[in-house]
Amino acid sequence: MLELKNVCYEVDDENGHADILRDVSFTLGKDIFAVITGPNGGGKSTIAKMIAGVIRPTSGQILFNGKDITDASITERARMGISYALQQPVRFKGIQVIDLLRIAAGRELSVAESCEYLSKVGMCARDYIYREVNASLSGGELKRIEIATILARETQLSVFDEPEAGIDLWSFQSLIHVFQSMRKEVSDSSILVISHQERILEIADEIIVVADGRISKHGPGSEVLPELIGTASAVKNCEKLTERS
Q: Which residue, 15, 56, 200, 219, shows the most beta carbons closer than 10 Å to its own?
């Protein structure tokens, strides 16, 4: 489904030259729930934006269903079947939730259909269906509405950039259930999540670890997660010993 081949991304700014991504290559097949994780500043969100078409690689290729989409725009990629959820969902003053769902679906959804999508993300539809997507909604509410629009789109690849950011514990638990349902209900599709959360890593089929702009590990979640947990524990123990000395 998705393949990145030797992707690099470089920037030049007031701080000089920086290699954000260096020779990143990986393949993501169909019916896969994958998580990209790693240290802050390692390049995770840059990969997500690159897949969505927000930014383009300095070199390398991005293929989707065998087609080169390296130079394709965000709109072209969306039409091909790629969805992208931002860390901070956009607010749309004057647009109601039902309007947003209809735009996402590309058709005139009925009220009942719209309510079904909201119910899947743990929202009481009658309380939200005619609400404006504006500042009156909390971060968790906006996040779940955004996920509902992605469900309505029924795309082949859904990319979520740190979906847990800015939401409360209840919303986070609901988010886990939504991801699990998406895996079961939408066939021939895949989910790619950028996350540090162990609870999300636990349900991943594959885990891709990115550090210093490179992929340091990529494999089945059942194999990679224990190594990550062991490394994290070792780092914490070293920090404790350092504090005592």
A: 200
